[in-house]
Design goal:
It holds the Pfam family Acetyltransf_7. The chain has 153 residues and is an alpha+beta fold. The protein has a single domain, classed as Aminopeptidase, CATH 3.40.630. It has five helices and six strands, in the order E-E-H-H-E-E-E-H-E-H-H. 24% of the residues are buried. The mean pLDDT is 89.
């Protein structure tokens, strides 16, 4: 696991956060929190992930990861930063680490993501473009149930 100092306040480590940190990061950043029973398995199946922590107390404040086969198809997921640490360039640092890792270890991979409108500027800066040729589709029983209030956090 590699760690690098970003500035006086943060460290970036090439490691996913703990399941509890992952749950809290997603929830506090306004993303749907993952189902707790599946969270640990999901994190273990990460191809590559990074976490930004504070130097002061080691708190996980930002993260991102890539899932997929590590060769041809890779998907960026879980890009999130705690609200009081946003607008400090942490999302850019996360994305840069993910893109650089993919370029080095899977240069022929299709790296894709589903972007919320606020993230489009960041993703465009990292070389992502909208694919107007395809219709994005997703099938997720978890997110449907969560939206209906049928899943506990």
């Amino acid at each position: 696991m590699s760690k690098q100092s970003i500035d006086d306040e943060y460290i970036l480590e090439e490691k996913v956060p703990s399941p509890e940190e992952h749950f809290n990061l997603r929830k506090q950043a306004g993303l749907t929190p993952p189902p707790r029973p599946d969270n640990e398995t999901s994190l273990k199946n990460t191809w590559f992930g990074v976490t930004i922590r504070t130097k002061q107390n080691g708190e996980a404040v930002s993260m991102g990861r890539i899932i997929g086969d590590g060769a041809i198809f890779c998907v960026v997921v879980d890009i999130c930063t705690l609200p009081h640490h946003q607008r400090k360039g942490l999302g850019s640092k996360i994305m840069r680490a993910l893109v650089e890792h993919t370029d080095k270890h899977a240069p022929n991979a299709q790296l894709s993501l589903l972007a919320d409108p606020p993230g489009k500027v960041l993703y465009n800066r990292m070389g992502f473009v909208e694919n107007k040729l395809e219709t994005p589709m997703v099938r997720s029983t978890f997110f449907k149930a969560y939206a209906r209030g049928q899943r506990e956090e």
